[in-house]
Amino acid sequence: MKNILLSALMLFALSSFSQAAGSQPVMKITDIKGVTHQITGTEEGFKIKGLEGKIVFLEFFGHKCPPCLASIPHLIKLQKKYKDKLAIVSIEVQGMSETQLKQFVKEKGMNYIIVSNSKAGNFTNYISQRAQWTGSIPFMVALDKKGNVQFVQAGMLPEASLEELIRQLDAIK
């Protein structure tokens, strides 16, 4: 029963995400290295300029969230292992300042794109509306290489599940 409910919720989230919001919004986020990433909303997901052709894991996390902290080493390993086909973009949503976040990233050895919520512009709200995200963390949206949303998950996924997700998304043509 739990699996059926989870599947139904995921289908609802995906169908909600895929409903066109009229025109394709263009948003910008700036990571802690000062790089600005342009994001264009599409009917089936979104495209991040410069990450075309890659699987993208968009993760919302918090620096005080135990499951979020536990997932960081997994994400570091996956980014290292799949650097040519995977891009991880994480947005910290528990209010860390830019300076604090830079120090946190350095201490944790995070090797993927990190953005403070204050530098995410209206992208966080966009995801909230399109993916029906209510603020629970960690929260992940996984895109295939075409920028289409293929998976939405509230809660931590084990490393093996993330590896399987990468394998499945890599197989999509």
TrEMBL record:
Could you say which residues form the signal peptide?
A: 1-20
- GO molecular-function annotation terms? oxidoreductase activity
Q: Name one Pfam family in it.
A: Redoxin
* Alphabetical list of InterPro entries matching this protein: Redoxin (IPR013740), Thioredoxin-like_sf (IPR036249), Thioredoxin_domain (IPR013766), Thioredoxin_ResA/DsbE_sf (IPR050553)
Q: Does the keyword Signal apply?
A: yes
Is-annotated flag, keyword tRNA-binding? no
Q: Which keywords accompany this UniProt record?
A: Signal
Domain (Thioredoxin): give its ranges.
18-173
- The superkingdom of the source organism is Bacteria
The protein here is known as Thioredoxin
Q: Which organism is it from?
A: Sulfurovum riftiae
